[in-house]
Design goal:
The complex is a heterodimer of chains A (154) and B (775).
Chain A (H helix, E strand, L loop, with lengths): L1 E6 L2 E6 L6 H8 L18 E4 L2 E4 L12 E3 L12 H8 L9 H14 L5 H7 L11 H15 L1
Chain B lengths: L20 H5 L15 E7 L5 E7 L1 H5 L3 E6 L30 E2 L5 E7 L2 H10 L1 E6 L6 H4 L15 E9 L2 H6 L3 E9 L11 E7 L4 E6 L4 H12 L6 E4 L15 H13 L3 E4 L2 H7 L6 E9 L5 E13 L9 H7 L10 E9 L13 H19 L3 H8 L8 E2 L5 E2 L5 H11 L1 H13 L3 E10 L16 E7 L5 E5 L8 H13 L6 E5 L16 H28 L4 E4 L2 E4 L5 E3 H10 L12 E6 L8 E10 L6 E11 L6 H21 L29 E5 L17 H18 L13 H11 L1
Parallel strand pairs in B: 1-12, 10-11, 14-15, 20-21, 27-28
Antiparallel strand pairs in B: 1-5, 2-4, 2-6, 3-5, 7-15, 8-13, 9-10, 9-12, 13-14, 16-17, 18-26, 19-20, 19-25, 22-23, 23-24, 26-27
The chains are: A alpha+beta (154), B alpha+beta (775).
Chain lengths: 154, 775
């Protein structure tokens, strides 16, 4: 099937198998390396992207379901060579170690702040429930989201 | 020539944000799964659904005929490859022959049986389902205690008692200590099987360059050089024609400190099909076929005097080994024995290990590797003893600690503890929570019927592995430091960081020692074609051993810089400071950059000095290091649900000098998260048929953000004399200190109900049942 998708501001048109997962489309067909695959049960959140403004686990969708969608991945966050405040905050607060969950974690964190510019610690932790990190114990991630909230609000 | 070298430390000890992060936060890092090559094929491994079975026949014809499939290989095809190596040796150890694919029998659910190779990963997965295997299912045993019972199914028919080894160690006069004891306490303590769960599963890309007879192997590993040596042997390749690359590695926690069947298998496949091949483990495979950790059933006995002095420790470990020995499987419980005295002075110990085969995936090193089990055991036992004697758990610990004046301290298990003030972190933790006041609060809470607990652990760990005679593969680490002709600095480390931040900490060391800008330093690792032989990253060793190798390579270079500087300045009295070589008499100076350029241009050479500015150092540590600390946990239990709420988590860790506090805190947090996981949530569960019930993230409870408490992290600093950086290591500390503190806290909360011990994980169901049965 033919699909057309806008990814990080660029239009892609491809013929894809109906069963092709969106994550595999992004990684194998489009050639992105940001969204990662950490499981096959939609639990780890490493594949989180933004689809039409909403955070989505790209392993839960087929590529054909994304036909006509606007997609932002971690690769599309930085603008004009400047990191997004959430990226900058993850860096400053040491919100990552091995980095594998990080693209999904940053996309989920951005979504939390898009919905609620001043989340409490509890709201941040619950907002990140769909994203697993095995390295950080989450505390520096929570700090990063708080710092990003401050930076965006400032 | 004067030898003054002024140190201009400006970066060590500072919370510098990590230099590896820009690629990670932009999604542009290259993990194995991100590697693409022209003509690349995809492999899927066919695995046994049974824990024990005979293979009557395998029919691969249907799979092989599916369009897009280029090859299917079974055990017979790979009989010349392997075996999967075990690097540990113990007297009398039984070592099963571990082929890279099963031939006539399988020993655990997930055992690799065949590999299907196709042009596309979806086709390979489809074709894997087409492989037809005729099984004769056999009786399995998954529980190590049951495996030791007479008549239990034999995991390996040649050893019907299921024992891989018996190990005994003793010191002092244990029988006398127990005969003369005022009090003896006993307890069986479990350290359950855990699944390491790095967020990146394993993965391999293999590329065969037939004309060069050379193989490139990209693997998500913690030990690229050791992997190269062993895979070369398994494949019968010349070692110098095998290049192993550990690209970006998405976490390891010990489970990638190994050599796996699939790593050699993909090399074999690439050589056979003469095309690059990629295999990426699914999470389900990761749970079935990548090593697990822990798996202890420990019987403890403590002898003590009436006033709480521990006089003897007896320990019997039943170690669940799984079906095979992976790289270090049988060695892991011996680390538990080494650390069984904890921070306490007693010289009378007796330990036995029985290593037991089960029809499960092998256990091996998982964060802490043997030391969390030891710490959990002794720290639980000390609390049980304190309860028996009606003593305060802090007081009994303070009474038994090795004292600061006693270092270097020889332990009953043959170690030499390097340095420490074991009371200091405990006192600090007690101060942070205002312990006496907290106990009063607890008494008040109890009056109101609330179940509030205060628990602590004071842990010691053995780190910075280690002196080579005490390690299976050499315990040194290597570093090459090059100052390029332009003055830029390249550090090649034999360690293989995968999240620990050594691209930053090693750059801090180099920038400080040479007095150059940190942006002028690049740290390179993980590629056997670029980096001199190294050991790798595990056992909290990378900075303490690998960082020290960098330090010594830098000392060589500094001496050489001064020689060239003296020549260029025509001086015999120079100082190196702030990146400048200064003539102490005239004040004239040459920068490190100018000197480096001159050393390569080589118009003039100092006496007995070669051109260039490169130094390689292999540093052999004279001892392990022994970090320590105290964790204190306040909990409250919900009577109605059994849920444990952690109200406060205080971690005071002493890892020696701290190079980068941001990174050290991150390591503590991550370690604690894995300790909390063990204490409250995680357990690998096999049913009686050897089926892994917790086979996915759906069923295996890795802590999520809302399941973690806020961690108050603090430190005391006792530098180690073992290395000139004074660093001890911090990668595993959080995990080791955590689980006993949490369990002690929950047992303390439930002690008014008569609860004396709880095994992990302390799920709400387990706690609820305990409360119900007490009421």
């Amino acid at each position: 099937m033919k699909i057309t998708v806008n990814i990080n501001g660029k239009r892609y048109s491809n013929d894809v198998e109906p069963r092709l997962l969106l994550i595999h489309y992004l990684r194998e067909v489009v050639g992105l390396t940001g969204p990662h695959i950490g499981c096959e049960t939609s639990l780890c959140g490493a594949c989180t992207i933004e689809l039409n403004g909403k955070a989505v686990k790209s392993c839960t969708m087929f590529a054909v379901q994304a036909d006509g969608a606007n997609i932002t991945t971690i690769e599309g966050l930085a603008a004009n060579g400047k990191l997004h405040p959430v990226q900058e905050a993850f860096w400053n607060e040491h919100g990552l170690q091995c980095g594998f969950c990080t693209p999904g974690m940053i996309m989920a964190s951005k979504q939390i702040l898009d919905r609620n510019p001043n989340p409490t610690e509890e709201e941040i932790r619950h907002g990140l429930e769909g994203n697993l990190c095995r390295c950080t114990g989450y505390q520096h991630i929570v700090n990063a989201v708080k710092a990003a909230a401050k930076a965006v609000g400032a | 020539m004067a030898t003054t070298i002024t140190k201009t430390k400006t970066l060590i000890g500072k919370a510098i944000r990590r230099r590896e992060d820009p690629r990670l936060i932009t999604g542009t890092a290259t993990y194995v799964e991100d590697i693409k090559m022209p003509g690349m094929h995809y492999a899927v491994v066919v695995r046994s659904p049974h824990a024990a079975a005979r293979i009557r026949s395998i029919d691969t014809s249907k799979a092989a005929s599916r369009p897009g499939v280029v090859a299917v290989f079974t055990g017979r095809d790979v009989s010349n490859v392997g075996p999967v190596p075990c690097g540990a040796s113990l007297p009398g150890l039984r070592v099963p022959h571990h082929t890279i694919l099963a031939t006539d029998r399988v020993y655990y659910a997930g055992h690799p049986v065949a590999v299907v190779v196709a042009t596309d990963r979806y086709i390979a997965a489809d074709a894997a389902d087409d492989v037809e295997i005729d099984w004769e299912v056999l009786k399995a045993v998954a529980d190590p205690v049951k495996a030791l019972e007479p008549g239990a199914p034999a995991v390996h028919p040649e050893w019907p008692d299921n024992k891989a080894f018996d190990f005994h160690q003793e010191h002092g006069d244990v029988e006398k200590a127990f005969a003369e004891a005022d009090v003896i306490v006993k307890q069986r303590i479990l350290s359950q099987r855990l699944i390491p769960t790095p967020m990146e599963t394993r993965g391999v890309v293999a590329e065969w360059r037939a004309a060069d007879r050379a193989l490139n192997l990209y693997s998500s590993t913690q030990i690229p050089h050791l992997l190269r040596s062993m895979v070369a042997q398994m494949l019968g390749l010349e070692e110098n024609r095998l290049r192993v690359v550990a690209p970006e590695v998405g976490g390891g926690f010990g489970c990638k400190l190994n050599v796996y069947a699939e790593e050699a298998l993909m090399g074999f496949v690439a050589m056979k099909i003469n095309k690059p091949v990629k295999w990426i483990e699914t999470r389900r495979e990761n749970y079935l076929a990548t090593i697990h950790g822990r798996g202890h059933v420990d019987d403890y006995e403590l002898a003590a005097t009436r006033d709480g002095i521990i006089t003897g420790i007896k320990l019997r470990i039943i170690q669940d080994l799984g079906a095979y020995h992976q790289l270090l499987t049988p060695a892991i419980p011996t680390l538990s024995v080494l650390m069984m005295p904890g921070l306490y002075r007693t010289q009378n110990i007796c330990a036995d290990i029985v290593g037991v085969f089960t029809n499960c995936v092998p256990t091996d090193a998982y964060r802490g590797a043997g030391r969390p089990e030891a710490t959990h055991g002794i720290e639980r036992m000390v609390d049980i003893l304190a309860a028996e004697l009606k003593m305060d758990p802090a007081e009994i610990r303070l009474k038994n600690f090795v004292q600061p004046s006693e270092f270097p301290f020889p332990t009953a298990t043959g170690l030499i503890y390097d340095s420490g003030d074991y009371a200091a972190p405990l006192r600090k933790a007690l101060d942070i929570v205002d312990y006496q006041n907290l106990r009063r609060e607890q008494a008040e809470a109890r009056k109101q019927g609330r179940l509030m607990g205060i628990g602590m652990s004071t842990y010691g760990e053995i780190c910075a592995f280690g002196p080579s005679p005490a390690t299976p593969a050499g315990g040194w680490e290597s570093a090459t430091v090059k100052i390029e002709p332009s003055g830029k600095v390249t550090v090649l480390t034999g360690a293989s960081p995968h999240g620990q931040g050594e691209e930053t900490t090693f750059a801090q060391i180099a920038a400080d020692e040479l007095g150059v800008d940190i942006d002028d330093v690049l740290v390179v690792h993980g590629d056997t074609a670029l980096v001199q032989y190294g050991i790798g990253t595990f056992g909290s060793r990378a900075t303490a051993v690998g960082g020290t190798a960098v330090y010594f390579a830098l000392q060589d270079l500094k001496a050489k810089i001064k020689k060239f500087g003296a020549l260029l300045l025509n001086s015999d009295d120079v100082t190196l400071a702030n990146g400048q070589c200064i003539d102490n008499k005239t004040g004239a100076s040459k920068s490190v950059q100018e000197i480096a350029a001159a050393s390569y241009r080589a118009m003039q050479l100092p006496p007995n000095t070669e051109p260039g500015m490169v130094s390689t150092h292999f540093w052999e540590p004279p001892n392990f290091t022994f970090p320590f600390g105290a964790h204190l946990v306040v909990t409250e239990i919900d009577r109605d649900t059994g849920a444990v709420k952690v109200l406060r988590y205080v971690a005071v860790d002493d890892c020696g000098n701290i190079l980068n506090p941001l990174i050290v805190t991150g390591q503590v947090h991550g370690g604690v998260a894995q300790g909390i996981g063990q204490a409250l949530y995680e357990q690998a569960v096999y049913d009686e048929n050897g089926q892994l019930i917790t086979g996915e993230l759906m069923d295996y409870a890795v802590p999520k953000a809302h399941m973690m408490p806020w961690i108050e992290s603090d430190h005391t600093v006792t530098p180690t004399p073992v290395n000139p950086l004074g660093v001890k290591g911090v990668g595993e500390a959080g995990t080791i200190g955590c689980s006993p503190a949490v369990v002690n806290s929950v047992v303390d909360a439930l002690s008014p109900l008569g609860v004396r011990h709880i095994d992990m994980p302390m799920t709400p169901e387990k706690i609820w049942k305990l409360i119900r049965s007490a009421q």
